[in-house]
Amino acid sequence: MPSWLIHEANIPVEFIKCDVTKGEGHNPQFAMDHGISHPLYKGSVPCLVDNTDPQHPITLTEAGAICNYLAGKYAPQFTFSNDTAHFANMLRYIFFSFSELEAPLWNIVHHTWLPIPAEKKVPQVIPTDEWRLTNALTVLRGDLKDGREFLVGDKFTIADIVVAFHLGWAARSAHILDMNNDEDCLISWLKRHQQREGYKKYSAME
Questions:
Q1: What CA–CA distance (Å, rounded) separates 198 from 100?
Q2: What pLDDT sits at residue 61?
């Protein structure tokens, strides 16, 4: 999802593709080859390496942290001042999306196609993760049923990117959302944001 923000804001970066299905992210040589050196890096994707300030280079993992960093440093039009209620609500949606949408989505992935040891896969937990997703989507519908264009305030922010990314993932992988159901406020909201040029450029990279 940081790549969506990068395309929205036209931030100059070098993209390095990492194929998680082949375990590239957990290959120490891959990290060394691409200058990723950080004690917290354990094959996380995405990972940002920013050396624009030689005195304070940064290697950052976790998509939410990367989006917040990029918006704060390079794309303030996609965030709010951190002493405002809008900023607090933006973070609320971001944290909610990672805990209530991404967490069960990753669980489903781990117990289906992600290359982890077979003895670690427990497909019996998938219905519980689908139930968690359904509950989270109900919460979001409660907010979006008012027809708002953006989650917070009157502009597109990293909260919209994070939530839209996870909703798209849910529609593709968990089959919890029906993308043909335009009467669902989640679908109509998601489709509007998927028409953005930044999303189209990001999606073309996948």
A1: 25
A2: 84
Q: From CA 68, how far away is CA 31, in angstroms rounded?
A: 23
Dihedral angle computed from the Cα positions of residues 32, 35, 40 and 46, in that order, rounded to the nearest 10 degrees: -110
**Cβ of 51: how many Cβ atoms within 10 Å?**
10
Q: Which long-range contacts (CB under 8 A, 24 or more apart) does 88-95 make?
A: 89/151, 89/152, 89/159, 90/151, 90/152, 90/157, 90/158, 90/159, 91/159, 93/151, 93/152, 93/159, 93/162, 93/163, 94/64, 94/67, 94/68, 94/158, 94/159, 94/162, 94/163, 95/64
pLDDT at 45: 77
Q: How far apart are the two ends of the chain, measured CA to CA in Å?
A: 11
* CA–CA gap between residue 56 and residue 48 (Å, rounded): 14
Per DSSP, helices labelled H in the chain are 2-9, 28-33, 63-74, 85-96, 103-110, 126-144, 158-169, 185-193, 197-205
Return the bridge partners of 59, or none: 49
User: Is the separation of the CB atoms in 93 and 151 below 8 Å?
Assistant: yes
Q: How far apart are CA 95 and CA 92, in angstroms?
A: 5
> Tens of pLDDT along 137-196?
999 999 999 999 999 999 999 999 999 999 999 998 867 889 999 899 999 999 999 999
d(Cα 71, Cα 65) in Å, to the nearest integer? 10
